[in-house]
Design a protein that fits this description.
Elements (H helix, E strand, L loop, with lengths): L7 H4 L5 H8 L7 E2 L11 H13 L11 H15 L8 E4 L2 H12 L5 E6 L5 H7 L3 E6 L10 H7 L4 E7 L11 H13 L3 E5 L24 E6 L12 E4 L2 H12 L7 H12 L1 H24 L14 E2 L10 H12 L1 E2 L1 E2 L11 E4 L4 H12 L6
Parallel strand pairs: 1-10, 3-4, 3-5, 5-6, 6-7
Antiparallel strand pairs: 2-8, 7-8, 9-12, 11-12
Helix pairs in contact: 3-10, 4-10, 5-6, 5-9, 10-11, 11-13
């Protein structure tokens, strides 16, 4: 097909490292895939069984445009019980994944050429999603020696008259950093000073290992200027269900509903029922998932410490490790290529997460301890690490 048929907006869009990794998964029979954040853990049976029972009973139609009311009430109840935060159902919208929620938020708030600040390293789709909403991403580097936390002084220097929002992601993908409560308050104060929105990507809430997670909307004045992006993918091993939710001021939610009507209409009804039971059964189904991932994180971290030419920040949260490979003298892409070709280990280069990610690789705890042991046994024998 002639290139002139392709939209100008997409002609310069490159395939992300995450997308490329999918194309490599079938090259070798013995690949150990540590690239994507999709673990081998199945959705708990009780969630599946209850959702399928509801599907058989007739929950197979469009839901309310804001989402299943029973699910929205359960989200409100969950936030009240866990965080003591009052959320009305008109401040909640159900989305087809957290990524879809992020795009909906950006599409609903951005004018052409509005600026959105994102801290590097960042979740790979952020810049593309901002550009799709006709905004401009502005990059704020973070550094390992500062625990990959946002430096508020550097943040403030990036703010212009065009700045509309700041995207915050903690526990962080890819670094695993968990922002302190004081840091969250500092960022919120900056947003108040310049009248900015905060888009808080809170996908890994239960994977915070050293401190209890506090959502941005829990802090004073946070609720009125924060758009919270949630997902059921990681907390409940529900990546394939493609279900998430947004919490935001009701006037923003209303705009999102209008936008969403012209994209996917409503989130899948069966997935919404699964999400309902995930929340209802949270205290039963979530702890075993977190326990298993934390066990994998600690094992991988200990193995990395024993390998020359590679080191790693101690895991604080998320389901990823972000090892420093600068002592190899190679780029992150070169290291990942060697890992793949020499050891058949699929990882993502830190450069995929922004310039501040160069010198690191991301390892997802997506396989069990047996496979992780095999992966690090192979890694130890690679020349660049010795």
């Amino acid at each position: 097909m002639n290139k002139h048929f392709i939209s100008q907006r997409y002609k310069n869009f490159n395939m992300t490292a995450m997308c490329k990794s999918n194309d490599l998964t079938h090259k070798y029979d013995d690949i150990i895939d540590l690239s994507l954040g999709d673990t081998d853990l199945k959705t708990p049976d009780t969630i599946i069984n209850k959702a399928m029972k509801d599907a058989i009973a007739g929950h197979t139609h469009y839901t309310d445009f804001y989402g299943d009311m029973e699910l929205r009430k359960e989200i409100s109840k969950f936030y009240k019980n866990k965080y003591n935060i009052e959320i009305n159902t008109d401040e909640i919208m159900i989305t087809t994944s957290g990524s879809h929620g992020m795009w909906l938020a950006l599409e609903s708030i951005l004018n052409d050429n509005d600026e959105v600040i994102i801290h590097e390293p960042f979740f790979t789709p952020y810049p593309h999603q901002i550009k799709l909403a006709r905004g401009n991403p502005i990059y704020l580097p973070t550094y390992e020696e500062e625990r990959f936390e946002v430096n508020v002084k550097r943040l403030e220097k990036l703010i212009t008259k065009k700045t509309k929002a700041i995207i915050i992601n903690t526990p962080n993908n890819p670094t695993g950093t968990c922002f302190s409560n004081n840091k969250m308050k500092d960022i919120l104060e900056i947003s108040e000073k310049y009248d900015l929105l905060i888009i808080s990507d809170e996908i890994y809430t239960t994977f915070s290992y050293k401190q209890s997670f506090s959502p941005m909307i829990k802090f004073p004045s946070g609720k009125k200027r924060t758009i919270t992006i949630n997902s059921f993918s990681k907390n409940y091993s529900m990546t394939g269900w493609r279900i998430g939710n947004i919490i935001a001021p009701s006037n923003i939610i209303e705009v999102m509903r209008i936008v969403n009507e012209n994209s996917v209409f409503t989130a899948p009804s069966v997935s919404q029922r699964a999400a309902l039971y995930a929340l209802k059964l949270h205290e039963i189904v979530n702890p075993p998932i977190v326990k298993e991932i934390r066990k994998r994180m600690q094992y991988a971290y200990d193995r990395i410490l024993s390998i020359p030419n590679i080191n790693c920040p101690e895991p604080e949260g998320s389901i990823y490790l972000f090892p420093n490979i600068k002592n190899t003298g190679l780029t992150s892409a070169e290291v990942c290529n060697i890992l793949f070709e020499k050891a058949h280990i699929l990882a993502l280069p830190g450069s995929a997460f922004g310039d501040a990610g160069e010198g690191y690789i991301r390892l997802a705890m997506s396989v069990d301890l047996y496979r992780l042991e095999e992966a690090f046994n192979r890694m130890e024998n690679i020349e660049i690490f010795n």
